[in-house]
Amino acid sequence: MKIKANKLKKFFKKVHVDGLNHDVLLNFAEDKLMSRAVDPSDVVLVNVSLDKKAFKTYKAIGEVGFKDIDVLIKILDSFGDSEIDIDLNENLFTMKSKNEEAEDLLPKPEFIPKPSANPELKYEAFEKVKTESFKKAKDDFTLLKAGDYKLQIEKGVLTISCGKERKKRHNIELKTIKKDGKIRFAQAFSNVIATLDKDDIEIGIADEYPITIREKDTELEVEYIIAPLEN
User: Fold this and answer.
1) What is the DSSP-derived secondary structure letter of residue 18?
2) How far apart are CA 220 and CA 24, in angstroms?
3) CA 64 to CA 183: how far, in whole Å?
4) Which residues, listed in sequence order, are joined to residue 65 by a DSSP beta bridge?
5) Tens digits of residue pLDDT in 23-73
């Protein structure tokens, strides 16, 4: 298989969720490369897919397990924007560019736990919002070194706050989501925000898993389903 190194790196960074996931099970399916992963704290379920048209040549080889994808991301970063050849011989994964070569002995897929299927969720609606609103909130809350985040939706306004006294707030007006609710999230919410790189994202609110964040382009689709932190 052939692909630009930066495209594959971007895929793995989405699965990585800013350090939440380290072991991952990939599926080179017929029409796309897919991954579903759950972070160790069972807070974030992430679904990532990369269309086969992102590859110059593509082969459906089925499931492949990866450990320590942090290292894999660093290796891909060293390839820059060069085109790489990918080969899998049993459990030896090889990546080659014109000037470099890297090999990794992979675990068998059965040694990487397979996350359960996506929960059946019912959404009132999905709404497009500016990623910048979430980024500003994360920057402010990082300075506070606060623990958990709180999201509250009331009368069509999504309020993000953080810290014990909740004095620092960011408000995002919603046009289609009117459902009221109060949600608390662990630090994982900050990891998700750090991973976002599109100008616009879609958010949806459901009962069991209260918020889903989606971002996509013509080749890459990502969905973060974030569970609430128990009170």
Assistant:
1) T
2) 17
3) 36
4) 25
5) 888 899 999 999 988 887 778 889 999 999 999 999 998 888 888 888 889
Give 50's strand partners.
33, 220
Domains in the chain, start-ordered, CATH in brackets? 2-111 (3.10.150.10), 126-226 (3.10.150.10)
Per the DSSP assignment, residues forming a β-bridge with 47 are 36, 223
Residue among 27, 49, 47 at smallest CA distance from 37: 47
pTM, rounded to two decimals: 0.85
Residue 100: count other Cβ atoms within 10 Å of its Cβ: 14
What does the alpha-carbon distance between residue 75 and residue 8 come to, in Å, rounded to a whole number?
A: 11
Q: For residue 149, is pLDDT > 90?
A: no
**Is pLDDT of 191 > 50?**
yes
State how far the Cα of 104 lies from the Cα of 106, in Å rounded to an integer. 6
pLDDT for res 83: 94
